[in-house]
Design a protein that fits this description.
The complex is a heterodimer. By secondary structure, chain A is mostly beta strands. Helices cover 12% and strands 51% of the residues of chain A. Chain A folds into 2 domains: 29 residues, no CATH class; 359 residues, Porin, CATH 2.40.160. Chain A has 5 helices and 18 strands. A 16-stranded antiparallel beta barrel of chain A has the order 1-2-3-4-5-6-7-9-10-12-13-14-15-16-17-18. A two-stranded parallel sheet of chain A has the order 8-11. The N and C termini of chain A lie far apart (60 Å). Chain B is globular. By secondary structure, chain B is an alpha+beta fold. Chain B is built from 5 helices and 5 strands. Chain B has a 5-stranded antiparallel beta sheet, sandwiched between helices. Chain B has one domain. The chains are: A mainly beta, B alpha+beta. Chains A and B meet through helix 1, helix 2 and strand 12 of A and helix 1, helix 4 and helix 5 of B.
């Protein structure tokens, strides 16, 4: 019997010694606190119109601190606190991520709405140009985040990532109408600050990366906006219900996007369309001028000039990306019951440079030519910026 | 007789214990899933299921040599590299000349950047030259939305491949 015990003891010692091997650490996963962040500091100057002077604007546009905690391999909490224009404080993300298995998670809390490219990938070194594209401001209101529950996952075998969520809708009506013809749904974001809800909205995104270099995305958002007119509403009062019904807008938004990298060339394109219903009643009831169809698209090509094409500035650690972008966004693509305002059909051409001095740090400069369909006037805007992500 | 059986049992256990000591018990044996995946890949790549795995280099990463009797078939390493906030696990199988013949991600934990798990993309590392980094770097295109993980795995593969090459040369 003694020998049995000895052999068992030896086996145990053997296992415990082996457990300290480096590969064993891999199996243990990685838990702990992670701190990160990103920031964008801008200078914008509108071109002088005739003799009318414009002052330049210097702004710490965004400074976001990331705190994430991995409880274990399956459970992590993600939070981002944002300082916008120095003095405005927001929580940009705050959700718990529970991995049921390696490729499937359940998430709950304040999350980014998976629509288009820049709402999800908005760290300044990940996009060209000092400012985010205006398609991703006026059509997709980045940074668009709401409260809800969702699932996210991937099929590595099929080269697919997906996300699906149930979230609160936009706040479309509180003391009055919130949406506008000029900025669409943007002002209705609830951002997790005492958000309210009647019925949840659905949003989903699928991306496919089966062809090396190419990443294709498809996003869809379906639901109704929220309205404070429903709070405390007597559902047996037909007139009250009918007027409350006039304060909501139905949304069907679809986005498709493509990103392609081949050698030193990068291509990005995105198209978004939002069909809104009930806008005639909404506008009549609130006196607003919300369009019934919002569209936006851009395509952009970039090239890394430090890839060796110009030997004297060739570099492996740094990149100098020259890019050109054409962008159109129209918050009055169609209207119901009101006249189309051509000034809301806006076009921008952007030419610029991004000097990536490190993987997560970039100096940016660009020039934008802005116009709209209501006149032949063009205005120029010059932008300089610093972007970091760590 | 009662005593004899006890002795037989004890001796058997001791023999079993000793046999297990005499074999190398690499740490990768501890994760059954990883073990199965890597073994299956070795069987497929070298078209044999008669092979032995032994510890080769003990460093931050664990390198193993794949042997058939005295013949070296190849090597493999199970490694870990960082994505944005998590680390992912992957392995590289090399032939006997230390050329990459397969890379596969075993576990990817981050929500973003899983595009690097793409088999088609990882195939681009097969037989890649790891003599100098810029040249090596240029041979594999980036992936949109996975920049951090792309750079991380590139650097890690380059590092591992050169550790292995140096060790083989030194032996």
């Amino acid at each position: 019997m003694k020998r049995i015990y000895i052999s068992m003891l030896l086996t145990l010692i053997f296992i415990s010694v082996k457990a300290q091997n480096s590969a064993e650490k891999i199996v243990a996963g990685n838990s702990g606190l992670h701190i990160g962040g990103y920031g964008q500091v801008d200078f914008n100057l509108n071109e002088r119109k005739g003799t009318i002077n414009n002052n330049g604007k210097l702004d710490v546009h965004r400074l976001v601190t990331f705190f994430g905690y991995n409880f274990n391999d399956k459970v992590s909490f993600v939070s981002e606190v944002e300082f916008e224009h120095v003095s405005e404080v927001y929580v940009e993300q705050a959700f718990l991520d529970y991995k049921i298995n390696n490729n499937f998670s359940v998430n709950a809390g304040l999350m980014l709405i998976p629509m288009g490219i820049q709402n999800l990938y908005h760290e300044p070194p990940t996009f060209n140009g000092v400012e985010r594209t205006n398609v991703d401001k006026y059509i997709i209101p980045t940074t668009w985040r709401e409260m809800g529950v969702g699932v996210s996952g991937r099929s590595i075998e099929h080269s697919i990532n997906y996300q699906a969520m149930l979230v609160n809708g936009f706040n479309g009506y509180d003391d009055g109408g919130v949406f506008s013809g000029k900025s669409g749904l943007r002002s209705g974001r609830q951002k997790g600050a005492e958000s309210y809800i009647t019925y949840p909205d659905f949003v989903g995104r699928v991306s496919y990366y089966g062809n090396p270099g190419l990443n294709l995305g498809f996003s869809a958002y379906l639901g109704d906006t929220e309205s404070k007119a429903y709070d405390g509403l007597d559902l047996s009062d037909d007139i009250a219900v009918s007027s409350a019904d006039s304060t909501i807008v139905g949304i069907q938004m679809i986005g498709i996007d493509a990103r392609y990298i081949k050698g030193s060339v990068q291509f990005t394109g995105q198209y978004v369309i939002a069909e809104l219903s009930n806008t005639d009643q909404y506008n009549e009831y609130t006196g607003k001028d919300l369009g019934s169809k919002l569209t936006g698209y851009y395509y952009e090509i970039g090239y890394n000039l430090m890839d060796g094409i110009i030997p004297s500035i060739s570099s492996n650690n740094e990149e100098l990306i020259a890019f050109a972008r054409y962008e159109n966004y129209n918050t009055h693509a169609e209207t119901e019951g009101i006249a189309i305002n051509d000034a809301y059909n806006r076009t921008e051409i952007t030419l610029g440079l991004g000097f990536k001095v490190a993987k997560g740090a970039v100096f940016k400069a660009d020039y934008q030519i802005k116009s709209n369909s209501s006149s032949d006037d063009e205005t120029g805007q010059f932008n300089l910026g610093v972007g970091v992500w760590f | 007789m009662q005593i004899n059986i006890k002795y037989i049992k004890a001796t058997t256990l001791l023999v079993v214990a000793l046999i297990s000591f005499s074999f190398t018990y690499p740490a990768w044996e501890y994760n059954k899933r990883y073990n199965t995946i890597v073994k299956d890949s070795i069987i497929e790549l070298f078209s044999t299921n008669k092979f032995l795995v032994k510890d080769y280099i003990k460093s931050d990463e664990s390198f193993y040599v794949i042997k058939q009797k005295d013949l070296t078939l190849g090597y493999f390493v199970i490694s870990q590299a960082p994505s944005k906030f998590h680390k992912f696990d992957y392995y590289i199988i090399y032939n006997s000349d230390a050329e990459i013949i397969k890379i596969e991600v075993l576990q990817y934990r981050e929500n973003y950047g899983a595009e690097i798990c793409s088999k088609k993309w990882l195939q681009k590392f097969n037989n890649i030259s790891t003599n100098n980094y810029p040249e090596y770097n240029r041979q594999v295109d980036g992936i949109s939305g996975a920049t951090i993980s792309v750079n991380s795995i590139k650097v890690d593969i380059y590092k591992s491949s050169n550790i292995l090459k140096k060790t083989i040369l030194a032996n």
